[in-house]
Design brief:
It is built from eleven helices and two strands; from the N terminus they run αααββαααααααα. It has 221 residues and is mainly α.
């Protein structure tokens, strides 16, 4: 029993130590501005399209939540998200780099004092409304899809529809070394729907007002 208690205590201390270390990593937006050269070639060009695994506009990341950006980069680094280019970029970043880049993009292009409506202002069709209720999207992403209940979840209102569609399909993909996303919750949700239904959901969410935007970098204007 004493050995068991000692082991449990040691694990508890280790968890607290890791958590404390994670809490100590605070992003610096000014430092992040010096670390985004590898980001702006895609995310700093309005309408820029990726070509793998299909053609789609890269996600808008200016105005996205910092903790979500860090979570996403870590998922690429761990291989939970398999996009080869993003995995390569994430592998090159330290925890501090990720925090700094995330801090930069979380305030990039944000208009001080601007406020979004508490609920979605565009009403879905009855068909899409049924899909939203089945997926229970608002339970994580918020009633306006722009204020997630946990900061490690993404804002999705106003995100590019084709990106959302590709991302949702990725949660359904299995046994592919270069395509797919591993997330128990999102995987279970996405697999309930046909690709046509996922496309309808993505199109609706993209039509909503949100914080997300692509801010052209000066060299691309």
């Amino acid at each position: 029993m004493n050995k068991l208690l000692t082991t449990v205590f040691a694990l508890a201390v280790a968890c607290v130590t890791v958590a404390s270390h994670a809490q100590e990593i605070k992003g610096d937006a000014k430092a992040g501005q010096k670390k985004i050269d590898m980001c702006i070639g895609c995310h700093g060009i309005v309408g820029y399209q990726a070509s793998f695994p299909e053609v789609y506009k890269v996600p808008k990341i200016s105005g996205q939540g910092a903790k979500y950006i860090v979570a996403a980069l870590n998922a690429y680094k761990k291989g939970e998200r398999k996009h080869p280019t993003m995995r390569g970029i994430a592998d090159s970043l330290s925890d501090q780099d990720m925090a700094d880049v995330a801090a930069y993009y979380s305030v990039h292009g944000v208009v001080e004092g601007a406020a979004l409506p508490a609920t979605a202002t565009v009403q879905p069709s009855p068909e899409v409304d049924a899909l939203l209720k089945k997926a229970a999207c608002v339970s994580c992403h918020g009633a306006n899809f722009a204020k997630p209940i946990d900061p490690s979840y993404p804002k999705i209102a106003g995100q590019n529809a084709d990106y959302l569609y590709v991302a949702l399909k990725a949660y359904k993909t299995e046994n592919n070394p270069n395509v797919g996303r591993s997330n128990g919750v999102m995987g279970a949700i996405a697999k309930q729907f046909s690709n046509a239904e996922l496309k309808a959901l993505a199109k609706y969410v993209s039509s909503l007002e949100g914080d997300l935007k692509t801010v052209p970098e000066s060299k691309f204007r």
